[in-house]
Design goal:
Strand order of the largest sheet: 8-7-6-11-9-12-10
Strand content: 15-25%
Order of helices and strands: EHHEHEHEHEHEHEHEHEEHEHEH
Shape: elongated
Structural class: alpha/beta
Number of helices: 12
Distance between the termini: 48 Å
């Protein structure tokens, strides 16, 4: 049976995981073993549990223990549960909890690139995208629109940071992902060796439209997205088989990278699954 503890001391050591430990510290806390991440909201926590992630402890607004988080409490077994009212939890964490629940969970070792790409027809590659909201939104679009796996360069924000997990609505636990070799940036040859044609999303003059027939007919395609502002590296664009643009109207020069990913995944992902 779960041990439920009423929070009386915000400085208690067992609460530091929620109050004063940065996400980088959580990521590295068990090195060389995988670290910890924080899942926020009942839906996200359920998806993490469904994917096999193991809970460490729960932080729950008191009224939700027998309410919307009751099933989560039951599923998590005898892990510690810390509770208080909303005001206390906001003081503890520094933000208002989404639907009143946080769960500290153990990370897992990341799979290798070839493993998650095996059998994939459409993958996305994120190059140096640091904005956590954009990373989460891209994962949500990928899950919804037919992308089989996501690869990230070392310059990307970690998909298991709390904001990314929340924005993704837990789809970071559903779409296979891993990092490319963290020691180098020239990953296009690797993608090609795995059998993928490569499409750089960029606004170059020699770009093809996103509905290009040859592009859509590719059996295996890696859609590569870059950070806002600077976009993809010049070397990445030059090494790709295609440079692809989304046509714009009314003088708009580009879309937010998360919005652009949704358009690209809808057009290219759905054809890749047909």
């Amino acid at each position: 049976m779960a041990e439920i503890t009423e929070i009386n001391d915000l400085s208690a050591p067992e609460l530091q995981i929620y109050s004063s430990t940065s996400e980088v510290q959580l990521l590295r806390c068990n090195e060389p073993e995988p670290g910890i991440f924080i899942a926020e909201s009942p839906k996200v926590i359920r998806r993490a549990l469904d994917a096999g992630y193991k809970p460490i402890s729960l932080l729950i607004e008191r009224k939700y223990i027998d309410g919307q988080a009751k099933d989560i409490v039951c599923r998590c077994g005898d892990i510690p549960i810390y509770t208080a009212d909303s005001q206390v939890l906001t003081s503890l964490t520094g933000f208002r909890l989404t639907q009143g629940v946080l769960c500290a969970m153990s990370r897992r070792r990341l799979p290798d690139v070839s493993g998650i790409c095996s059998g994939a027809a459409r993958i996305a590659v994120l190059e140096d995208i640091m904005n956590q909201t954009n990373v989460g939104a891209i994962f949500r679009s990928a899950a919804a629109l037919g992308i089989d796996a996501i690869l990230l360069t070392s310059g990307c924000s970690d998909p298991l940071y709390r904001r990314s997990v929340r924005v993704s609505m837990g789809t970071v636990f559903q779409v296979p992902w891993t990092y490319l070799d963290r020691s180098g940036s020239d990953y296009i040859p690797l993608l090609k060796s795995l059998g993928f044609s490569t499409a750089a999303m960029a606004l170059n003059d020699d770009s093809v439209g996103i509905d290009d027939e040859k592009l859509m007919a590719e059996k295996r395609l890696a859609v590569i997205l870059g950070t806002e502002g600077e976009g993809l590296r010049k070397s990445t664009i030059e090494a790709c088989d295609y440079t692809v643009k989304i046509p714009m109207s009314h003088g708009v020069d580009s879309l937010n990278v998360a919005a652009a990913s949704a358009v690209a995944f809808w057009q290219l992902g759905r054809h890749g699954q047909s």
